[in-house]
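Quick question: what would this complex look like in 3D?
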Amino acid sequence: MDAIVAVYDDWGIGADGTQQIALSVDRKFFREMTRGAMVIVGRRTIDDFPGKKPLPGRVNVALTRSSVQIPGFTVCDSPEAAVELAKTVDRAFVIGGGSIYNQMLPACDRAYITKVHVMPESDTFFPNLDEDPQWELEQILQSGEENGIAYEMCLYKRKGTA
Ligand SMILES: NC(=O)c1ccc[n+]([C@@H]2O[C@H](COP(=O)([O-])OP(=O)(O)OC[C@H]3O[C@@H](n4cnc5c(N)ncnc54)[C@H](OP(=O)(O)O)[C@@H]3O)[C@@H](O)[C@H]2O)c1
């Protein structure tokens, strides 16, 4: 299982339930990476999806502690249940938000991190993998600038994994 996220320079990922700055090049990268895969997402992040609808062309798994049905999503009531579901498919991505990344990163071996080189004020953060001895930068997959904002798509791997 992999994580995919866009982080600002302080590893902030959002504020007030949304992403303050989102690059279209990163949205495209996200779409290409996750197409056809399972995506695992927290209920608060779903609230920020257009129309609160599932992402098309993906198997959408929602994490919530409430017992509601969410149309278009398979609902899980724990990260452990989501990990079990992820074992039933070839490719699964943890796509946020902050609480879900924090709880599910230990079950991930790879993390696709888009570094967006700005620093708006965030209230939600991704763990800083540059300071985590269990993780290493494997490769910079893509880099450039959009509207004057530099970015890099980085692949991090958990040390000791293939
Ligand atoms: N930069 C990026 O790439 C990126 C990606 C995704 C999200 N984000 C940002 O992240 C922020 C949202 O993150 P967040 O931490 O506030 O919310 P979140 O992780 O998206 O969702 C939290 C919700 O998930 C459910 N949940 C959490 N732990 C659970 C558990 N152990 N078992 C079952 N359900 C559980 C709960 O839903 P219930 O309350 O329904 O029980 C909880 O309220 C937003 O600002 C968003 O824009 C950024």
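Answer marked as accepted. The radius of gyration is 15 Å.
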